[in-house]
Write a structure and sequence with these properties.
With 531 residues, the protein is of the alpha+beta class. The protein contains 15 helices and 23 strands. Helix content is 31%, strand content 26%. α10 packs across α12. The protein is elongated. The chain starts with a helix and ends with a helix.
């Protein structure tokens, strides 16, 4: 028995030798009246326990969490599993935000430790929560209640993800007004149909998710919701649009009007009458003499001055083809400014062949958007300037005839470029929906062009082909009479493009005849309606 007694004694002695060290770690002295009292110190800190608890929660190690909780309920694990299941979570992480600052140590005086939760799943969600730590048996423990899962939770309450079908995206005007209601003007409905073609997914009823606080089957409140579709924000200005619609009322032939904010390229109005075809954006017409804005820009950039003397005979043979002015009017010798104002076909045809061969006119046309695709958020055609095949073809192109084609939107952009000093691709839907559009990247016109054309275009209204039309002060523009078909007196589309302040515009009337007689008065009515 002696050996056995010795072994027992040895183990007892070793335990007695360890015990003072353990006690020393847990007992701290407190000085009181009459002596010193030894008190028990709680191991660790609330933050350290909270960190271990949150790490275990992230790992879904519910046994470790239970060991760190004070008086956990019997269904501790199932509650946590149901919490994530109700939220349709595929992953969840929980952590204590690290304190910042020189004096921050993350300590908690009241035992409350905040945490951040990130739930990933059907609906990704971040939220903030709190853990209440208490001292139990010489250690810090999480005083668990349902609020430890989420601050809103109490007995009988739970958080659940709900799924529902949302309404398709709304279409909004620049001021936030709804555009897609049943009473929308026909021209606006055309635009919305164009948006459906461009953004088909936005017009489908999407899935929307929300997280509800529920008690049984009753929804107490919706905590968060997401999904659905953001509205489609357009640049359309209903005031400007209504002014355009009033301006073409009573016109007995198909007509279109487009207005832009010159400095940004934002489309303010698109009006077509009658409906059925969006000729304003999809129609391709010879632009006639409105294209002389481009031709004049090329001539000015290459050295022609507004006061330079030029000739304007009634008729001129260019490349074996006779070109003539409207009504065979002979203006003799005059300034380049006046030749532009009176829309001298013979002047522009002759000067273009003399100075703009070798693709120069096409290069300048490209700086106004000709040949480039435009993506305003609805289908729209590009303006076309094919390479001239000979002198006759070049002379025809210089006055907007032959194979040159453009839409009212294209030509409104030409006027806008003069008003702002740069070509800006037009847009109807805000840039966030059109990632390849760069509305804030204008392409400046060549040196001297803006200054000269801002002198030439007002002369059309004050002294030239549109001087008989009552335009508001400050209007600059260009008439166009674009022949099509055949015969001694072929039919012609009536054009007027221009700007006033930061509003640029284009008007076309199919088969309307002279631009000064038909399109120009429509433009004047439009501008007066904006006043």
């Amino acid at each position: 028995m002696a050996p056995q007694t010795g072994r027992t004694y040895g183990r007892s002695l070793r335990r007695r030798r360890r015990w003072p060290w353990i006690v020393a770690a847990l007992l701290i002295p407190a000085v009181v009246a009459g002596g010193v009292v030894w008190t028990l110190r709680t191991e660790g800190s609330p933050e350290q326990t909270a960190d271990r608890y949150l790490t275990a929660w992230s790992d879904q190690d519910y046994a470790a969490m239970r060991a760190l909780a004070a008086d956990p309920p019997a269904d501790f694990e199932s509650r946590h599993r149901r919490f994530l299941s109700d939220l349709k979570a595929t992953q969840a992480t929980f952590h204590r935000p690290r304190p910042t600052g020189v004096f921050a140590d993350g300590s908690s005086d009241d035992g409350v430790v905040g945490f951040q939760a990130r739930i990933a799943g059907r609906l990704d969600w971040d939220y903030s929560g709190q853990l209440q730590l208490v001292e139990r048996g010489g250690a810090w423990k999480v005083s668990w209640t349902p609020a430890a899962l989420h601050p809103l939770l109490d007995q009988g309450l739970s958080l659940r993800v709900r799924t529902e079908r949302a309404a398709p995206a709304q279409v909004l005007a620049a001021d936030g007004a709804r555009l897609d209601g049943p009473d929308a003007p026909g021209s606006v409905q055309q635009l919305i149909e164009g948006m459906r073609q461009t953004f088909p997914d936005r017009f489908e009823a999407p899935t929307r998710y929300r997280i509800d606080l529920v008690q049984g089957d009753k929804v107490v409140r919706t905590v968060v919701e997401a999904g659905g579709t953001r509205p489609i924000q357009t640049t359309l200005d209903l005031k400007v649009h209504r002014a355009g619609a009033r301006a073409i009322e009573g016109v007995d032939k198909p007509a279109s009007l487009v207005a832009l904010r010159a400095s940004t390229g934002e489309i303010l109005a698109v009006v077509n009458a009658p409906g059925g075809f969006n000729r304003a954006l999809m129609g391709k017409y010879p632009p006639g003499s409105t294209f002389k804005v481009v031709t004049a820009s090329a001539l000015v950039a290459d050295g022609v001055e507004p006061d330079q003397r030029v000739t304007c005979p009634a008729e001129k043979n260019i490349g074996g083809f006779p070109f003539h002015n409207a009504g065979f009017e002979d203006f003799g010798t005059l300034s380049f400014r006046d030749a532009f104002a009176h829309s001298c076909n013979t002047t522009f045809g002759e000067m273009s062949v003399a100075a703009l061969n070798g693709g120069r006119l096409g290069e300048v046309a490209g700086s106004f958007g000709f040949g480039s695709a435009i993506t305003p958020g609805v289908p729209a055609v590009r303006a076309e300037f094919p390479d001239p095949k000979d002198d006759t073809d070049l002379a025809s192109a210089s006055i907007g005839q032959g194979r040159v084609l453009a839409s009212p939107l294209n030509m409104a952009s030409v006027a806008a470029a003069i008003a702002s000093g740069a070509y800006v691709p037009p847009r109807l839907v805000t840039a966030e929906h059109i990632p390849d559009q760069q509305p804030d990247n204008p392409q400046p016109l060549e040196q001297g062009v803006t200054k000269a054309l801002r002198e030439l275009m007002p002369a059309v209204v004050t002294d030239g082909t549109a001087h008989g039309v009552s335009f508001p002060a400050g209007t600059a523009g260009k008439t166009g009479t674009a022949e099509y078909g055949s015969g001694a007196e072929p039919p012609a589309h009536s054009w007027f493009i221009g700007y006033q302040g930061d509003v640029a515009f284009s008007v076309v009337v199919e088969g309307g005849g002279a631009g000064s007689a038909v399109a120009a008065p429509i433009a004047a009515r439009f501008l007066r309606a904006l006043s």
